[in-house]
Write a structure and sequence with these properties.
Order of helices and strands: EHEEHEHHEHEHEEHEEEEHEEEEHEEEH
Distance between the termini: 31 Å
CATH class of one domain: Alpha Beta
Strand content: 25-35%
CATH architecture of one domain: 2-Layer Sandwich
Radius of gyration: 21 Å
Largest sheet: 9 strands, mixed
Number of helices: 10
CATH topology of one domain: D-Amino Acid Oxidase, Chain A, domain 2
Length: about 425
């Protein structure tokens, strides 16, 4: 039985561990923190958005970005760094800011989304959805600008499950939007989209992995460098000592960037910092039942268990995962304005996390320049959505099986 070491215990690393264990590999999972899923997988937006995928890079985004930077509570903050990786990533992002590239990437992500949906359905046989507050809530994207709404409606629908709604119909479908109805131009509702607690999912899957006969160890330790010998990865140096295996999988989020560099590999990743609030829902509150995205404000609202999760913002400030009080205050203002009765915002818990993104928003999954080093990373804000799909693709590729669809825009070698 071949051995594999997976570096990273977030949702991507854990799902990779499951699919590889099921494929017959002896799996060791290495996680640097005391618990799994305490970084980008912790208090993210919780969306399983398979049919509504929107790459960040698109025509007109550079101009919008300049406008966002001038807004007090705008969705984007940028801090220039003396780091060539930031500028190289931005250059790649700008190359993808056109309609053709966006359309090609969107088509590929929709394929990945359907594969991920099927993968999560498989996992439901092993980990109960009740354990991680899974809800088939549907997704409602609401628009404030009539022009932006018209353009959104004019785009080809990604699914037959999409419904175009007037402001009145949107508020009827989701009463929590009553306060916002007068400011809306319309909405697009997509059936079949879900929300769940990503951290709880990871902890539940971890418990199931510990019972799997092909999972040998779940180790606490930080990977420091990859050891290269004769054109292959010969081991990984960690705080727990050197580890060796037949195969190695990088699934450590933004930390994968520095780790890959120790083996001479450049990964086109940048940490897009996002924020969230988790506010308790009481009997007196009117929290949304449907997952709602305020398109122009770039704010997501999702009921997860007895909490309202409010997630938003992209800060390009390097590997700074600290909670910025000003950004949290801005997010609180937006939430109180849009859904003043949605939850007890005075008791909200703030969070910030670094989402490892590629310039075109497509994750990288597959072989690296070394035959026994594999990548599963770069999922950006859609790690929970795409984790099951990329884990399945990774297991197929490592066994020499053809992937279920062409991997252009997903392959590390593309």
């Amino acid at each position: 039985m071949q051995q594999v070491i997976i570096i990273g215990g977030g949702v991507v690393g854990l799902t990779s561990a499951w699919w590889l264990a099921e494929a017959g590999y002896k799996v060791t999972l290495l996680e640097r923190n005391d618990q799994v899923a305490t970084a980008a997988s912790f208090r993210n937006g919780g969306q399983l958005s398979y049919r509504y995928v929107a790459p960040l890079a698109d025509a007109g985004v550079p101009l919008k970005a300049l406008q966002w930077l001038l807004q007090k509570d705008g969705p984007l903050r940028f801090r220039p760094e003396a780091d060539w990786r930031q500028w190289r990533w931005i250059a790649g992002f700008l190359r993808n800011c056109n309609a053709a590239s966006n359309a090609r990437t969107t088509a590929k992500l929709l394929e990945l989304g359907e594969l991920s949906r099927a993968g999560m359905a498989e996992l439901e046989l092993q980990v109960s959805p009740d354990d991680y507050a899974w809800r088939d809530a549907g997704k409602l994207v609401v628009y404030r600008s009539p022009e932006i709404f018209r353009r959104a409606v004019a785009r080809p629908a990604s699914s037959e499950a999409q419904l175009i709604l007037t402001p009145q119909q949107a508020a009827q479908r989701e009463p929590a939007l009553a306060q916002l109805q007068g400011a809306l131009a319309g909405g697009i509702f997509t059936e079949g989209e879900a929300v769940a607690d990503c951290h709880a999912f990871c902890r539940t899957l971890e418990a199931r992995l510990r019972q799997h006969p092909n999972v040998s160890l779940l180790l606490k330790g930080e990977a420091r460098s990859l050891i290269v010998l004769k054109g292959k990865i010969a081991g990984v140096d960690t705080s727990a000592g050197p580890l060796t295996a037949d195969h190695y999988v990088l699934a450590a989020g933004i930390q994968s960037r520095d780790l890959a560099a120790t083996a001479g590999i450049y990964l086109p990743l940048y940490p897009l910092k996002g924020y969230s609030l988790s506010a308790p829902i009481g009997a007196q509150h009117t929290a949304p039942e449907i997952s709602v995205t305020d398109f122009e404000r770039k704010v997501l609202y999702a009921r997860i268990g007895n909490q309202l999760r409010v997630a938003a913002m992209v800060d390009m400030v390097g590997e700074d995962a600290s909670v910025d009080a000003d950004r949290i205050a801005g997010l609180m203002r937006l939430a109180r304005e849009a859904m003043p009765h949605g939850a007890d915002y005075d008791q909200a818990t703030p969070w910030a996390g670094l989402r490892p993104a590629t310039p075109n928003s497509a994750p990288l999954v597959g072989a690296s320049r070394y035959p026994n080093l594999w990548l599963n990373l770069g999922h950006g804000p859609l790690g929970f959505t795409f984790a099951a799909g990329t884990a399945r693709i990774l297991a197929d590729l490592m066994r020499g099986k053809a992937p279920p669809f062409s991997l252009d825009f997903l392959s590390p070698r593309h």
